[in-house]
Amino acid sequence: MQIHHALVHLITLGMVISSALMIWKGLIIMTGSESPLVVVLSESMELGFERGDILFLQMSKHPIRTGDIVVFNDGREIPIVHRVIEVHERRDNAQVDFLTKGDNNPMDDRILYTHGQLWLQQHHIMGRAIGYLPKAGWVTLVMTEKPVIKSVDQTARQIHSSSSAATSSSTLSKSARSLLRDLSLRHPLSSPLLLPSLLADPHLPSWLLLLLSQSARPHDALRVFDHMRAREVVPDAHASSALLTALAKSRMTATARKVFDQMTRAGVAMNTHVYNAMLHVCLKAGDAALAESLMTRMDAAGVPLDRFSFNTVIALYCRKGMQYEAMCVRERMENQGVKADVVTWNSLIHGLCKERRVKEASQLLREMAMAGVAPDHVTYTTLVDGYCRAGDLEEAVKLRGEMEAMGMLPGVATYNAILRKLCEDGKMKEVNVLLNEMDERKVQADHVTCNTLINAYCKRGDMTSALKVKRRMMESGLQLDQFTYKALVHGFCKAKELDEAKEALFEMMGAGFSPNYSVLSWIVDGLCNKNNAVAVLAIPDELMKRGFPPDKAVYRSLIRRLCKKGFIDLAGNVFNEMQGKGLEADCLVYATLACAYLTAGKPVAALDILNEMAKKQLYITPQIYNYKSSCKFAGDGVLQFQTKQCRCDQKKTWEGRSGCSRLDYEFLRLRGAASRTWIIFMATHEHYS
User: Fold this and answer.
1) Which of 44, 215, 240, 309 is catalytic?
2) Is-catalytic flag, 82?
3) Which CATH number fits domain 492-613: 3.30.1490.110, 2.40.50.140, 1.10.530.10, 1.25.40.10?
4) Residue 564: count of CB within 10 angstroms of its CB
5) 109 belongs to the catalytic site
6) Where does the record place its PPR repeats (predicted)?
């Protein structure tokens, strides 16, 4: 009888386990994810999700977008639940890369990825969150608790505690938490109708502003900020600094300045973190004057400057070439008891190397060691690059040896600096030796390495080697940029392989890069050198056949180069074709043609061009004015072109001003070659204060 009961229990247990496995396998098939259910283990996604919440995952064919919550595993024992903050699609193979971040973490997940990994690939993603069940995973959490999990939790808590003035999760109501979870699973601010209900809770606006700012959604964050201002809701310092940082990362520096002024008027508690975020904006904008005024305001308000504040200002001064000011900030840093770290020294060394003051930079390296700050890869790479740019390859190699002696293997940036100098000196044998060394040490070449090699081979006319590097570049998944295509076009033109140069031009435009004046000039020069300048007229038609309709910039470049080479009639034909296609010429085209006609002794044609320019009310910009202002032509029956110097206050430039100048054409006297007439072209600028 006991055996019978035991068999019944055993069969029942087996059926339960089998049913569970069948349900699990069914969920896997339905959701397309290898793990349809996951438990949130850390606090990195609070306040949206807490530890113990169960998330339902799905792997659909729909692409993952910025703002989606995903579960990824890049080889670790425990998968991670975080939000996608950036999606990058490669043009060459359409592969999609992802960057993730915890909503409650101050930085992205690159510190959590495998060493050297900057992005997640599609195969790392286990699923996308489509639903949740709060607190239902606590049993699993307790049963599967491991030391690894504890360390992750401690790290998350430390990161959370280090961020100042964070909104406490206990202050949010249950309905607000539920709304936040629903909002997180959809995209933040997917509907404007959610804003009024969100802003009604006194604790939600700042948290929502923080969430959107850290999720790389600055436009949505600005919308929330505007609604908060309209309701006279003041964001806290943590959310304010996050918004300014997000605007700085998105290069929305002008908007960040306005937002900062609005924050000041709204009464935001301006602490060190808020000022640091605004100093970061100044760094991105290169505005040293605003940074100085911010430091003055911090001193007046009694807000202390920390190491980040000083380092940001020093980096800004070094970028602007203001080394003396940077050194003064470092002295003030020491006087206030803030010890300079490796970032401080690296900024100062980089500033000196940028100005070719490598000996002074080396002296800073010695002072750095005396101060007890150990140099890192960036320090040595900066100095190696500085010596290479200064032409001292021997000293650069010595520094690389010193770097290796300290146990730091050179990275790809270090190799790139030496490779560039070797290529400039034409030492291709040494280049091959260095490339073999990179292969032996498994240092992966990047696009800078490949572009350096391609440019060197193209300058030497070795297009076979240049194309080999290009193929390796594409096979490695590296993206060809505008510099790559420019080097190839230049190399083919130099080798007099104009058909291949045109193919490289078409490939360049197919990749989304517009050819500039230099690229088209090389092709025009190549055709002119082959006594085939007429073929230039066919370039717009060839572009049209390839599906790249020529724009104003293409026609402008062709006209300018033909005029430069002396083929003025052909330039006029291109100009007529440009107008026939409905493209309006700008003032540079008209000024170039007029100057070319004057040089060729055709004053009537020049007068026609200038009259047409005046009818269209086109104004000569200061750049064109200065470029074309000093033209004097001697000889009987030839035009004399004179201009009046424009008066302009140095503090008020002509650039970017609407209606900054008015051009008056005064043709005082006109006479032909037979009657010895001069045309005096006077350009007078009215200065507007």
Assistant:
1) 44
2) yes
3) 1.25.40.10
4) 15
5) yes
6) 236-270, 271-305, 306-340, 341-375, 376-410, 411-445, 446-480, 481-515, 551-585
